[in-house]
Amino acid sequence: MTTPETNHEDHSLKFLFLLLGYFSLHILLRVLISDSLDYDEAEQALLGQWLLPGYTEQPPLYTWIQYFLFKVFGKNVFAISLLKNALLFLTYLFVYLSASRLLKDTRAAILTASSLLLIPQIAWESQRDMTHTTLVVFAAASVLWLTLRLVENRSFLNYALLGIFCGIGFLAKANFILFLTILSLTLLTFPEGRKLLFSRMIFISLLITVAMNAYYVTWMFNNQDIVFSATHKFKQAIVTPQEKGVKSFFTNTFLFVAPLCFFYLLIFPGGLGRNRNHQTDFSSRFMFRYGLIFILILLVIVISFKITYVKDRWLQPLLFAAPLIFFSRLDVKTISEKQFKRFLL
After folding, report:
1. What is the predicted pLDDT for the residue at 239?
2. Domain ranges of the chain
3. Quick check: 69 pLDDT over 90?
4. How far apart are the C-alpha atoms of 72 and 53, rounded to whole Å?
5. CB-CB contact of 139 with 176 (8 Å)
6. What is the rounded (10 degree) CA torsion for 132, 137, 143, 148?
7. Can you tell me the mean pLDDT for 215-233?
8. pTM (2 decimals)?
9. Measured at the alpha carbon of residue 135, what is the angle toward residues 134 and 140, in degrees to the nearest 5?
10. What is the mean pLDDT of residues 290-309?
């Protein structure tokens, strides 16, 4: 006899196998169609020949992993594509796992993870050329999932894993600090979050993160000219009005989520209005507060540091959670089978 639990497990397994097949196909097509490299990939092909404590203004973890993959598979497009697609697969997986914990509904979790395909910066740009950004989005997705696990179970293992994935995040890209700041501030607004952050076991996470980054931080201290060589990217205003930076932030945020909103409006129109989730627990409110704090913190940074341009790739480790924000405001029990299939097809 088929039970609802069995159906949910079937949906989950089918989705994960489809996801694995999707990214495997990307690797295959990339190897068969072209061996040319874009800028970021070409940089990895060059730097990945050596194992060094640091390379450029970007943290070194992506290049370290690429170095070992080159050792195993040779310096070729397959090794480059394998790393990128493995990270993308894991990002989708952790978004799915986070949605499962927040929404307590398998179909809604599948829809949430599938929504990443509607974000061009993740679905297309990450495939086209991104490297460090792909790694930091994976790190952010994994830390979000571990945070939700810790809310339910503040165990030694979960705190240790949190330290490991935070260590990965700091070694991936500098804007992970921004994600962690927004996540921590969001947690502070909930009793459950304060218990998580003020537990003595948080020192386990801190110790592991510090240990993982100590070698690179030493290199940073001795190579500050390299580390800060890319600060011009922020385009700080001297004469230009600060409104330009605020406009850039809102414009790129809108462009980031616009395809999502379009499809959500077509299929789940109720979710774009007022909150349809009438629950008042942590799960239903957490992601919405995350979104509000994201906007507030980014505005403070843009205005305070007179930043005149915000790149969409800088927003990726922050806005990958946009589908989670949407579905947490929707009463997922009202999602019909027809809506579920329409969205996926």
Report:
1. 47
2. 4-344
3. yes
4. 20
5. yes
6. 180
7. 84
8. 0.92
9. 100
10. 91
